[in-house]
Amino acid sequence: MVAAVVALKLRLLRNTMSRELWRVILFVLGALWALSMLPGLLGGARWLSGQELLVQRPAVVIVGTVLLLGWLVIPVLMFGADETVTPRKFATLGLDPRRLAPALVVAAMLSVPAVFAAFVNLANVVVWSGYGAPTTAIALLSAPAGFLTCVLAARVSTGLATRLLSSRRARKVAAALAVGALVLLVPFLLALGAAGLENVLAGLPELARVLAFTPFGAAWAAPSYAAEGSWVAAGGHLLLAWGWVGAGLLLWISQVDGLLVDPPSTVGASRRRADAFLESASGPPVLRATAAVARRSLRYWFGDPRYLSALASTLLLPLLIALLLTVVGAREVSGWVLLAPLVAGAVGWGRHNDTAFDGTAFWMHVSAGVPGVADRAGRALALAAWAVPLVLVLALGGVSLAGREELLGAAVGLALGLFGAGLGVAMVSSVLLPYPAPRAGESPFATETGSVGASLVAQLISTTVTGVLAIPVTILFWLAVTREEGFALATLLVGVLGGTATLVGGVVLGGRLLDARGAQLLSRLR
Amino acid sequence: MSTAEASTPGGGTRPSSPPALRLRGLVKRFGETLAVDSLDLDIPAGSMFGVVGPNGAGKTTTLSMATGLLAPDAGTVEVLGVDLWREPARAKPLLGVLPDGLRVFDRLTGAELISYAGLLRGMPQDVIAERRDDLLSALDLHGAARTLVADFSAGMSKKITLACALVHAPRLLVLDEPFEAVDPVSAGVIRRILGEFVEQGGTVVLSSHVMALVERMCDHVAVIGAGRVLAAGALDEVRAGIELEERFFDLLGAKGPEAGLSWLRPS
After folding, report:
1. I want to staple B230 with a disulfide (CB 3.0 to 4.6 A). Which of A296, A506, B185, B251 is the partner?
2. What's the predicted TM-score (pTM) here?
């Protein structure tokens, strides 16, 4: 069974790679990245092996915890990035889950991240090798447990996500929770910042002692007890580490069992509402089409979990940057002032793959011969309708929190400038550089297999162009912050005018391109 | 294959008016595969035209190119004398399309989807409202008008998409597999609507796998195989005295199910 599943996975990988050059490039880049991390990893382990036990144990336990957290969370966020062999696909074969589940785990080890995780776990052996042969032996015995815990954690968390996200309502709730979790991160990090770095560090040894009993730290901490001579504790933690592996495997087998017998269905209860589309449209035909597209986009913003989760992932970075700047305390400007501009830029730029979210339903626009400008303008209006008020509120809140009310104009100017530039670029790039998005009704966290390369190119290009377009307003904003407040008014003017100009330019250019290449675009959507 | 029939595509009943659909030299290549191989076809105005062919013959690819949904590598498409790919703004209002295997905006209700299709074409509200209600009752979709399309069955999705194709009162309807997954009662309703449409001077092109259905409904037929028209014209010409299904096997050089699965015998 193991051999068959592994052979299947290798064959599938080879086939996708021979079809898409991007997969090969990405695989090579990933492998190179992992290789380039090895010297640093080894150096870190060497350095740590020369430290005191009081430093060593918390350090390795924290490394192990972060690694396992990554293996729990990232596969769910990248859901579908590696869907080569999932239990669901074996549902019709009538296999024994107790034989299939371990085979799937072995197949899951064949990936660059898994090999990297194996190396990180082996680094723990290097850390403890200085304490003599018995301690090294304990480390050698516990490292595989740590590695297996990671691989199993990824299987279990994706299995759980598949189950939880199987109904449409659940997907919507999950997407909303993701947005909510991001917002909740704010007070947590603030509290962490308020506690002060020293207090946090002082608590680490105790934290490590607790984590050592959990799957996060057991395998990592076991050798540390051997190093201090407490062999009972060392043996106990080693057994515990393998116990967690066993528990993970049992959990995984029961999940595979469930997925084989009762594959998640996508059927939900039906909902009803009255036709809300006709009232809004009036004026000449082009405006009617624009209004219809805008209303439809708005419906999707509030009715389709994929949009919410896309929003969550675009908001993640600006929120983190603003928080980091606030916590660390940049000298020139508090991070709060930057909150609105960062969010505005991310939200506008975030629609750089907007058309792909329509999927093949976009044929209705092509078939109806919707003027490209109407299509683009409708989408831009739907976003601006809720994003601009939000950005204005954030700008006001941000400058108040920072106590720099005189910068309100500058913050609004930079925010609207970035919003217009990002959205303008998005209006063009979503015609020229579409990449596969999760289909309507799929998990909002899904990325299509093989889309990583195309998405990187599209994101890189659209980010660069947005950045270049926003240079003038950014410079003015910087001057307003560092030199004198007079520049705030200039920032506001340039931001509003420039943002509007880039947005209108993007809508017109994107519309022309759409008129010329609507059918080509459609054939690239899924 | 019979070159004599392929060289006289269609079989224009009214030679004076331009054909409803005129395909010339259409080519589409997907990587190594030549899906449509310089295909010529005339579809006379006022006909109920059936397009048949085996899986992978290029039916959907051809119909997609004929309706502006897929850019051809070469060749021209004329809808009632208007070049579709050069003057889409003039040609597309004449066309109603029901594609196969493409999604619709399924977060809209049935009624909203029809309104959306009408608004995309810039139609006035009052006209849309009237036609939307007519279409919903004609296709027996009133119960589904307030339900999201995502919750529709496959057959209901087909019917609502057909309604979207009809709302702007096109002159040519191109329907890819319109009867797939549709129950017999709804199929009867759709056949009646299409029949009336043709009686009033409209033209219908439909593709199907079901020979008997094409034989019963259509007055013209084209057999497509390997990206080319193997035979086309009035139904009686094409069938040449035998059943359409037999003729179909003849044209494709295919045999009926002979090589059976001898071991597949539940005892």
Report:
1. B251
2. 0.76
